[in-house]
Amino acid sequence: MGSQREFHLQQRKGRRVILFPLPLQGHINPMLQLASILYNKGFSISIIHTNFNSLNSSNYPHFSFHSIPDGLSQSEASFADIVSLLSLLNVKCAAPFQDCLAKLLSNIVEGESIACLITDAGWYFTQAVAQSLKIPRLVLRTNSVSFFLVFAAFPLLREKGYMPAEGCEPDAPVPELPPLRVKDIPVFETRIPETLHQVVLGMTNQTKVSSGCIWNSFQDLEQISLATLHKEFPIPMFPVGPLHKYFPASSSSLLSQDQSSIPWLDKQPPKSVIYVSFGSIAAINETELLEIAWGLANCRLPFLWVVRPGLVRGAEWIEPLPKGFLEMLDGRGHIVKWAPQQEVLAHPATGVFWTHNGWNSTLESICEAVPMICQPCFGDQMVNARYVSHVWKVGLHLERKLERGEIEKAIRTVMLEAEGQEMRERIVYLKEKVDLCLKQGGSSYQSLENLINYILSF
User: How many helices (H) and strands (E) would you count in the chain?
Assistant: First the structure.
């Protein structure tokens, strides 16, 4: 066995993989996790990245980093309109990326060859560049397979009048995409709706003609969606996730983490804490902040709440909270600007995760068997929340108004009632599936082996 492994490592020595992450936190993490996995399997790694949300290369001394200008002005480099940002990045990075990639291809050291390029699916312009430079391009999708099927159905949804969903009953089912309802169709606030359709078409079409697709998901979780996808996208598929499980929490956070969360959790009883975090982009208003605060206070359970600077529109941080709010809680609440999420979810004191249902957060919660309260904001989060609450049944969708009474009721249901206990049992079962899929002979383990052999075949 050992000599065979040596042979495989020898085979990969001198094989370099170039990766190009999209400069958003939820996209950077999985790409760097994938890079670490491939490095661990014997490949050399080069990372091309933009100046916007630039990466900290000192955390990865074994990779070579190449930064390209993105040409964004200060007003363009904003999350207010993600669709416009993506569209702009795909235009402005095209020439600098092509130059950088061409240089990497021509400056190969002796005894080394470049196997392939792996880009985030959001970089749809890169397919044409890869073809012109005759290098295979694989795509990493950082969302769920189920969401990608919705993405691919955008033209159909538009044609049927679901987008925009004017005149449609929000709770009506979308028969073309069970189990979704009209209100689960992804929403992207954008100034120019036409741009959204161009971006979506770019992503789906350029994924379809890529050399293959890598998924941060696993077979047991999304079996039906993967089977459907295989019919529509006849390219090699590699569901190798959950990527973050191959290594301890990676150090690619763009925000500095407040480490006080863990000692605070250490003092709390097992499964007693509500962990609240809405990710790195979502925003709420002052009224919503107050309803969340009182909802958490009134349920009389300990809570760890991430309020990142910029979460509350028009406020620096938590100034809108009533005077003396934290003191009144008598140590029961802990508010931080950012938390080491994987450690928090893995902590025995954490009992429920109130989340925006970004895909990374959803997977991390499943991997630690922490049931969810779902509060999706935009994009793929609506689809993820629907699957969490109605397909896997490991969470509760907070669908009505963000109001303190509703919040308290939802928390009590998941933390204290039989319905919550059933969710906990189901999510423990899913966690066991995760552990199995990563072991030798498991589906993700096998997918990773297939991916490595595929890269070596180029």
Answer: 18, 13
How many domains does the chain divide into? 2
pLDDT at 419 over 80: yes
| Cα-based angle 53, 57, 62 (whole degrees, multiple of 5) | 145
Amino acid symbol at 199: V
Query: Has residue 66 got a pLDDT over 60?
Result: yes
Burial annotation 424-444 (CB, 10 A radius, 16+ → b, else e): bebbeebbeebeebbeeebbb
Do 205 and 274 belong to one domain?
no
Same domain for 344 and 421, yes or no, is yes
* pLDDT at residue 5 tops 60: no
Residue 447: C-alpha distances to residues 215, 285, 454 (Å): 10, 43, 10
Tell me whether residue 256 is in a domain: no
Check whether residue 181 and residue 240 sit in a common domain: yes
Hey, what are 155's tokens? 């033209």
User: Of 1, 3, 33, 96, whose CA–CA distance to 448 is shortest?
Assistant: 33
How far apart, in whole angstroms, are the C-alpha atoms of residue 438 and residue 452? 15
